[in-house]
Amino acid sequence: MKLFYILNLTAAASIAATASADITGAYVVSYAVNTTDFGGAAVSVNVQDLYLSSDDGADVALNVFNMNLADSAKVDYFQSFTSTGWLAQNAGGPFDAPALRLADSFVTIGGFAQDTLLPEQAPGVGAGTGLDPNFGGPNTAYPGDLAGWFNSSPPSLNGQVGQVAQTDGTFGLGVLVGRFAYDGDFSLEGTTLEVTWNQGLNTPAEQLQVPLTVIPAPGALALLSLASLLGGRRRRG
């Protein structure tokens, strides 16, 4: 049964669309992070950032829904000690930590700086995202079957696509919709999801007729050689 949340966005899948002004696919950028959490605890995780791609700079992601994780992606994802679960939120001040910025798992409908391969969960970014009931709540180990999330502040344009840094040094149109981090092997590739988008306030919502399937970013293998960012091990809660 398809759940539709009018401000919800689906992440990770690369199916080309023939029409213009479309969200055209979903892909993941993969890398390793070694850093420290609140209190100095070491964190070492593999990270996959989930993006939607687009063919029009006016496109605004509204929601992701009906996401079904590939079996290899059903793991207990890392959450930073000071995180609020799957909703992106950095309270700043003493609660800010490198692991929260770089290794925490979250979903979002945009709102992040996109011109870098390593977008940080800085204070204030990604606010205004809500989870649909199928997600399983903010503290679930991983999103449930037919999970979704959405822009809970409709007047905002958090999900507007922008120039996203690519692994080959170029830029393409897209928007970040999630970060998944785990201290072992996992892959979002093969995950399917659906997306709703429009072209700004007072424009009609659009959807593709088929789900998107998550693929690796072009040139993503180059990221496997990224050096660590600090040092550590995953905290188990």
Quick structural gist:
With 237 residues, the chain is an all-beta fold. Helix content is 2%, strand content 32%. The chain has one domain.
The SSE string, one letter per element, is: EEEHEEEEEEEEE
Strand % is 25-35%
Q: Please tell me the overall pLDDT.
A: 84
Percentage of helical residues?
under 10%
Q: Give the total of domains.
A: 1
What do you see in this structure?
This protein has 237 residues and is an all-beta fold. It has one domain (23-225). It has one helix and twelve strands. It has one helix at 98-102, and strands at 23-36, 42-54, 60-68, 106-107, 129-131, 147-151, 162-165, 171-182, 192-198, 206-207, 212-213, 215-216. The strands form two sheets. Strands 1, 2, 4, 7, 8 and 12 form a six-stranded mixed sheet that branches. Strands 3, 5, 6, 9, 10 and 11 form a six-stranded antiparallel sheet that branches. The chain starts with 22 loop residues before the first strand and ends in a 21-residue tail after the last strand. 48% of the residues are buried.
What's the arrangement of secondary structure elements?
Layout: E1 23-36, E2 42-54, E3 60-68, H1 98-102, E4 106-107, E5 129-131, E6 147-151, E7 162-165, E8 171-182, E9 192-198, E10 206-207, E11 212-213, E12 215-216
Parallel strand pairs: 1-12
Antiparallel strand pairs: 1-2, 2-8, 3-6, 3-9, 4-8, 5-6, 7-8, 9-10, 9-11
State the main characteristics.
237 residues; mainly beta; six-stranded mixed sheet; six-stranded antiparallel sheet; 1 helix; globular; disordered N terminus; disordered C terminus
